[in-house]
Every structure is written in C-alpha cells, then in structure tokens.
Amino acid sequence: MGLFSSVKDKLSGGSNRSGITEEQVKEALAKVQDPDLHQDIVALGFVRNIVIKGDKVSVEVNLTTPACPVKEQLKAQCESELRAIPGVAHVEVTMTATTRAAQRDNNAAVVPALAGVKNIIAVASGKGGVGKSTSAVNLAYALARTGSKVGLLDADVYGPSIPRMVRITQLAEEGGPNVIIPPLADGIKVISVGMFTQASDATILRGPMAGSVIKQFLTQVQWGELDYLVIDYPPGTGDIQLTISQTAPVTGAVIVTTPQEVSLIDVRKAMSMFKTLKVPVLGVIETMSYFVCDGCDKKHQIFRSGGGERLARESGVSLLGAIPIDPRVAVGGDEGRPHVAAFPEAPASQAYIAAAGAAAQQLSILNAQASGILNQFALEWKN
Amino acid sequence: MTSTAENIRVSAIEQAGPRTLAVTWSDGRTDQFDVVKLRRSCPCASCIDEWTREQRLKPDDVPETIRPLRIESVGAYALKIHFSDGHSTGIYTFQMLRGLNL
Ligand SMILES: Nc1ncnc2c1ncn2[C@@H]1O[C@H](COP(=O)(O)OP(=O)(O)OP(=O)(O)O)[C@@H](O)[C@H]1O
Ligand SMILES: [Mg+2]
Ligand SMILES: [Zn+2]
Questions:
Q1: Which residues are within 5 Å of ligand 3 (an ion), measured at CB?
Q2: Total beta-carbon pairs less than 8 A apart between chain A and chain B
Q3: Residue pair A143/A155 in contact by the 8 Å Cβ criterion
Q4: What CATH number has the domain bearing residue B87?
C-alpha cells in the first residue's frame, strides 16, 4: 500500500467521509429491474445491508429463489450501477435468496405436516411413459443443487418408480403414532409407496386405499421446512390427482409431454384438469425432444418437433425446457443416480437445470403477484 | 393458463403524458388511458346506480381539466384514483381496466 492510499484511508477512515449516501446507493440500484417481476429491485425489497465505507460500497441482494436463472446478470448490473456513483471505487454485491412462500387462502385449513412447505409443484401429464418421473426426480435434484430444501413425493401409487430412481442414504423412521419421518436421498426428503411394499404387492393398492395412502403422505409425513415439494403424479386425470389437490395447497403444475401429437391430446386434458382444480400451470417440459449424436453434435429431431412449444403457445404458458434423449438418463434412472447428479454438465442435465430455474421463476412471479408486492404501487400525478 | 383474463394483473403504472396513464400488464401488454375519460367511467356507487347500472354521473360535469392527484393499488386486484375534484371512491379493478377501451 502506497503512502497516498494510506493517507486516503485515514482521511476516509471507517466512517463515511466520502459523502456517498445510502440514498444514492438505492437510487442507483433502483435502475436495476427484475426481468420477471417488471419492477426495480429496491421497490421489490431485495436490497439489504447497505454498507458504505469510504469509497467502498457493499450490498446484499436477496432474490426470491436460489434457482434464479438471471442471478449473474442481475449481479453484474448492480455492480455497474454502483460503480457509476461518483466517488465509488470498490463494490461488493452479495447475492442471496430466500424462497418466498406461496400465499395460502386464509379460509383454507392448513395441513400441519405441510405448514413449513413453501411451494408444492405438481409434475403431471395426461399420458404414461412420457418421462414424468424422470423429470420430477431431476427437477428435484436441480432445485436442491442451488441450495433449496427439497422434498419429493411419489404419488404414483400404482406404479411407484421413485425408489428405483434415487438412492436412499438414510432410512425412513416412525416418528410416533401417525408420524413418518421421510428417508433422505442426497439430502432430499423422499416418500413413495414403493418403500413400504414389495414391487409385486403394488397391485394391492386400488381405489380408496390408494387415495388414503396419498392423504397419509401429505398429512403424516414430517416434511418440515421445505422450499419446494415436488410431487410425481400418476399418469392421467383420475381420483388421485383430485385427492392431492383437495388435501394439499398445490402451488403450480409442470406438464410433461413428448413431442408427438398423440401425447399432446392427453396433455391438454391434464391442463384443463388443473384449470378446474384452480392450480396454475407453470409451464411445459418436453422430454425426449431430440438426440445429440456423438458423431456430429447436431440435434436430431426423432419425433415430430415442436409439440411442447405448440402446446405452450396455444395455452399461453411457457415452455420450461426441451430435454434431449440420452441413454445415460435412463441408466441413471435405473441405478438410482439421477442424471443431474451424475452428469451435471451433460445437455439433458443442463436442460433440466434450466427448466427447474424457469419453474422456480414462475413460482416467484405467482407468489409475488399473490402477495401483492407487485401491485403495491402509488403514482403522484405531475401537472 | 396464466393468460386467462382473471390471472392478468397490472404490473406497473406510469404517467405517459399530461393526461395519459400507461398501464403495463403481467402478460407484457401495455395500455394507455386518458385520465379524463377514466374519471367519466368511474364505477363507484355515486357515479353508477348499483341497481339499474345507469350512469348517474353526467360526462359533461367532468371538466377536461380534471387530473389525478395520486393513483395507488388496492390489494392485488385494483387501482384507486384520487382525482383533483376530490373524488376518490372509484375502485378500478384490473378486470375492468383490461376491458376498457379509452
Ligand atoms: N431424456 C431421456 N433420455 C432417455 N431416456 C429417457 C429420458 N427421459 C426418460 N427416459 C426413459 O423413459 C422411460 C419412461 O420415463 P419415466 O418413467 O420417467 O416416465 P413416466 O411418465 O413417469 O412413466 P409412467 O407413466 O409409467 O409413470 C424410462 O425408462 C426413462 O428412463
Ligand atoms: Mg412415473
Ligand atoms: Zn365515482
């Protein structure tokens, strides 16, 4: 450190002699807009802990989800706006996130087991075998990767596949009468009927039994504090889907489809079901969309392309992602090693990670809208 | 489904001119409203008869010079406009604004 800078340090001291004010900092950061919420980050209440020390400004920007896909972009914008304040030489922007909870209908009875669950995501499709469970598992892992607390509920009581797709590292326990402590897979709380029956016994669950098992999963499993609970729905639009919505406050639905027209017909059914249940659709994930070949790295469309996109467009929801076919996705599913965990850099993993971010973004928008933070504005008219 | 009318909300409001209010919707659409016409379409009970839906307010009673003083949000569903004539009982729901053609 040279003489000059040490003198300068003494002059500015620990106190704020540079004349930079908190107001200036807020004014500068108010130029940064959240691209989803269409409002500046100061008005949204994201800016915290403004510290001004001499020519150094540090702030914390608290986003609505750690899975925010534009985190780096926002950080860079904040830094450059802060640097533009006269007298500022050093800036430090720390990005944090607190997942906002879905707004609950005040009149709705709260299920105690779900009281600490901030968002419930339904992963559904009208048709079987489209990659729903694979998507649910990889979305859960993608969300957990960003630091979110995640749970995964296998609601497919007739054909549970989650136990095969993840590796349980800590077994389920009985936490007293009518209390189940869920097992953990890589830190994710998981529950499935497959954990309680042998695969061959799955057929004993029929009709009313199946519904009561789902109710137990929602009301007796100690979910604790979760940012996201991902529910893998059984295919179709039957009683189980209804039971879930009647028991739990599902925040939003992710609809899974393959690109073919046949599966789209079923997906539209799923969409109208959620409409009836008043569950907003967060978006569509198109699986097995294309094949990236080793030889040429080009995207080969195997099925007719664009089904997910067309569906998203015509129903006014966004396409959260298009997941390529990769045999490793299936192998990982069979071996309890979800693709996102086993090959995070692979194209299918990246597509799942982006889709999880997009879904979390949609939830943030919904939650912000419902909480009214987007709508609390006031305008003084200028004559 | 986010595009159905009941889900669309106002995400921002702005003064776009001396007598023009710009409204940005959650689906990205923007609309401009003439504030004088907004005052003339006030939906409150003293301006519109609750039973007959007849307009009690005569458009000519509202001068061209009328302006808002302040516009604020009400819950997550409407705007409240305080006008320079002291009138502020009109609750302009997002749904109503979305359908207005001013
Ligand atoms: N991106 C992918 N690339 C290759 N294989 C995939 C991909 N996604 C899913 N699969 C495979 O497709 C098959 C069906 O997937 P999955 O079990 O997730 O579908 P599902 O919709 O849950 O089916 P079900 O209706 O039986 O519950 C599985 O064998 C899975 O490994
Ligand atoms: Mg499945
Ligand atoms: Zn009125």
A1: B 42, 44, 47, 90
A2: 75
A3: no
A4: 3.30.2020.30
